[in-house]
Structures are given as structure tokens and as C-alpha cells.
Amino acid sequence: MNDFPNEKIPQRTDPTFEKGWTYQIGARQGTVDSFPLVEKGKADRLILTVKLPHLDGSEYLSFANQYAGCQVFVDGVKIFDYGEETTAPFGSMLGNLSCNVPLKGQYSGKTLSIHLEKKYDFTSFKVEEILLGSGSEIRFYYAKTNVGVLACTLLMSLLSLAMFVLYLVQKSKKFKYDYKLFLHLGFVSLIGAIWIFTDSLLPQFLFGNTIIITVLSFWAFMAMPIPVIHLVDDLCRYGKKGLHTAEMAIFLNMIGQTLLYMLNLADFPQMLLATHAILVFTLGCIVYALLKDSRSSEARFANDILFAILVLILFGLVALTDFYVSGSSNNNSLYYRWGIVIFVLLLIVANIKRMGAFLEEWEQNRVLSKLAFMDIMTKTGNRSAYERFLDDKADLDVKGGNLSLVLLDLNDLKKINDTYGHNAGDQVLVEAARCIKTIFQNVGDVYRIGGDEFLVIIEGSDVDGQHYQEKLSAEIEKNNQKTKYPFTLAFGFASARGDDCSDLKELQKKADLNMYQDKQKYKK
72, 107, 189, 418: most buried by Cβ count inside 10 Å? Predict the structure, then answer.
């Protein structure tokens, strides 16, 4: 059905062939004034006839055909058949396709007739347009008239890819946001893209096998609510029983319809009523769960999803009404297509808003947590941060972790406070902390564990205590040359390996003893 020659983009881009056609439906005959031609009666056969113009042998006659048998005759001789001589791997369903009939130059001036035969009672005859032109002209025309399908498919595919990437990134970083929502949105977009593409005529020109494409289109349409169910199920606390029932009904419907089709007992188009009924039931369960959950902490997001669902329902009702009134899927596919695109976009926007609110709250909590474990004056870790470290490292092998401690205490801070005031004492604390961080900020973690006492924890590396004491003394001397209130620090160092300490308490006692001895030297 897609054996067009590989030609360049044609100069003539409108190969429509609409003049001179007559029709016959039962005993009724007439002239086709214009296309599309719609016949809603109970007749099961439509014959279209026209006198062919001059042909050079490179032309094709092309028209869309939805599940109908089709034969084309030239002066009573059959030159094309789709239906009677068409066989599928399973079942007897005909596809939603473009019939492309090659025409020979010798057919010029002869009478061509198209015989369309209904396969299903609920459908009607609807011939959108008939094309006559070269293969490249027809292919380019279908591509041009399906730009909306291509755009929607590309958009949904890109959205799906973006959602999957976000899911994988969040999962790898173990972010506390409910990143599974991105996974569900990715599948909603992916299945929507598959359905939009397979429900059009475009796949035929890429893959050729219209039956497999048609089956895939029905599967995608039936499966589309499943990721939405999972999204709502993860979000809502209520209505889960109904959601699980709806999901089971969808799976049973897919399995049952596939088996009936393979056993040649019924075709997918004949079972559309069951699919539509399950879809309506599923939407009802989703709306119920969202309404029940509307008073929870997630009410804002639930309301956003509910709005998206209502938009989809509105488009769906219009599509279903058009389908059952006109008996054709051309227009209702357009309604479904845009309904699904808008629905997915609304879901993604709602999820982005929800994630934005989460990130704002997370950042606030991070800042508050940081402030809770920070000494505001010196911008070092506070006593609480140090005690948290002790709790986290309670069972630490200090020798295996190669742990070292540096205890530091300001000499004569009380004298500075009494002589110059507490503001001067605070300034000295800030300058002392700055000197300590300058020397140790890339080596270990600095804590203020008392009024004038600081602690440095160094993990995983061998440390020369005397070397760092000399560096710190030089930094303090450099600071004292330009400050109004000079100071000194008592220095106490201990390492688990060098001082043969087995736990944190013993290591801290050793560092404290060394600091006391250094302070005694200062007093002398």
C-alpha cells in the first residue's frame, strides 16, 4: 500500500480530484457536488464513478478508507482490491488506511468506479477527499495535511522523554519528592503519542502493514488511562478500590478483545462500545477519588488534576458524540488528539507547580536546618551540630577512620569583656573563628562548642598537629597587627593513631589535656 516511487518534493502540491464524480447507493443515484461525501443511511454499498482524464502512467488514485472493503474497476475490470483478497495474520479486520491505486496511461478517458462495502453496521460511508497525482504529490499532500498530527506526536514524544529523564535524575539522586509522578506522566505522554500517530494515515507510508498499526492504535487507546490511574492512586488516599477495579477492567478488556480478534469472533471496531463504557467508568472512578481527596494537604494538586480530567472529559464527550452521530472517526480523532495534548500539558504544568512548591518548602527547611546547627555569630557549626556528629559517629572506629581533634580556647576572653565590653569580646570571637576557618576550612569541620571554645574534627588524613599550630599562630599574629583587640588561642591536638585512642571520648580527653597544658604555658 505504500510502494510510491522515491521522488523529490513536487511542484504541484494540491492533487485533489473532486470534479465529475457520481454516486450510487442502492437504487439512489446522483452527482457528487463536493467532498467530503457522507452517507448515514443503512445501505451497505457505495459506488463512486468518474471518467478519467489523460494519464501519463505515473499517477495514483488515493483516498482514505476506514475499515471498509474496497474494489476499484476500470471499464468493469478490477484493478485494485482491499478486503476480499486481503488477509491478516489474525482475524478479518480491515485497517484505517489510504487506498493508493496505481493507474496506467492506457486508462485515459475510461470509466473508473470505486466500490466501498461496509463491514460494520454502526459505521457510515464518509469519503473525505479523492486525490489524483504522482506518488510524491500524494505523499507530500498527506504529510502537509497531517502537520497537526506530526506536531502533536513530536510534542508528546518530547514531553515523554523529558518526564522520563526527570524521573531517572530524581531517582538517582534519591530526592525526597514523589518522583514517580514523572514516570506516570512520561507514560501518559508516550502512550498518547503512540495513539495519535497510529490513528492517522502517516504510519502506512513508513511501515506499510496497516493491520498491525490499527491493532496498536486500539491497544494504545485502551491502555491510555492506566498511567493516569497510577498517578491518581499515588496522590489520593481515597477511592483506591474503584481505581484498582477500573485498572483491572482495562486489562481484562484488552486481553478479551485481543483474544476475540485472534479467534475471528469480533473485530476491535465492533467492540468499541465496551472500550468507551470502560473509559467512562474509569474517568468516573478518577473523578470520585480526586473529589474525595480534595480536602487533604494535596488538595491544590488534586484540584489541578481534576480540572485537567474535566477538560479531557469535555473533549471526549464531543468526540464520542461526533463518532456515534456521524459514524466516522475522522473528526472525533481530532477532538481526542487535542484533548489528550491539552490534558497532558495541564498535568505537567500542575506537577511543575507542585514541585515548585515542594522545592520552596524544601529550601526553607534546609535553611532552617542549617541555622539550627550553625553558630550565628561565628558562622561555624554549633554545639548541636557537634552533638549530632557524636551521635552519628558513636560506633566509629576512630583509628580506622584516622580521626584527629583540635581543641582551641581563647585566652583571657573574660578580661577583654570586662575591659572593653562584650561587643569587643564578640568581635574577638568572630576574628578568632575567621582565623581558625582560614587554616582548617579545607581540612576539617569547625565547631564552636562553648563560649570561647572551638573544636576542629579532621577525618581520613594524617595530620601534623605542630605544623597546623604554627600556621594558626602565624594567622593570628597577622590578624593582631590590624585589630584593635589582639588575642591568642590555647591549642590542643590529639590523633587516634598517634595518641593510641580507641574512641571519641578518649580522643577528646587527650585533646583537652593538651589544650590545658598549652594554656598553662600561656599563663606562665
Answer: 189
DSSP 432-455: HHHHHHHHHTTTSEEEE-SSSEEE
Q: Cis omega (within 30 of 0) on the bond before 36? A: yes
The secondary structure of the chain in percent helix, strand, coil, rounded to multiples of 5, reads 55, 15, 30
Unique residue bearing C-alpha cell 485472534: 262
Using a 10 angstrom Cβ sphere, with 0-12 exposed, 13-18 middle and 19 or more buried, the burial of residue 279 is buried
pLDDT given at position 330: 52
Q: Spell out the residues 6+ positions from residue 70 whose beta carbon is closer than 8 angstroms to its own.
A: 80, 81, 82, 83, 99, 114, 115, 116, 117
DSSP letter at 16?
Answer: B
Which DSSP symbol is given to 9?
A: P
Whether the Cβ atoms of residue 21 and residue 94 lie closer than 8 Å to each other: no
The set of cell numbers assigned to 426 is 564578640
- Kindly state the helix (H) or strand (E) to which residue 408 belongs, with its residue range: strand 404-410
Residue with cell 478519467: 52
* CA atoms of 416 and 194, how far apart (whole Å): 77
3-state DSSP call for residue 98?
A: strand
Q: Are strands 404-410 and 453-458 parallel, antiparallel or unpaired?
A: antiparallel
CA distance 522 to 505: 26
Q: Within a 13 Å sphere around the CA of 343, how many CA atoms are in the beta-carbon half?
A: 25
Instruction: Please check the confidence at residue 100 and state whether its pLDDT lies above 80.
Output: yes
Tell me the average pLDDT across 354-375.
72
Instruction: Give the whole-angstrom CA distance, residue 3 versus residue 98.
Output: 12
Indicate if the pLDDT at residue 402 is higher than 80.
no
% of the chain residues with pLDDT over 90: 21
Strand partners, 130: 63
| C-alpha torsion sign, points 157, 163, 165, 167 | negative
512/379 Cα distance (integer angstroms): 23
What's the pTM? 0.66
Helix (H) / strand (E) element for 96: namely: strand 96-102
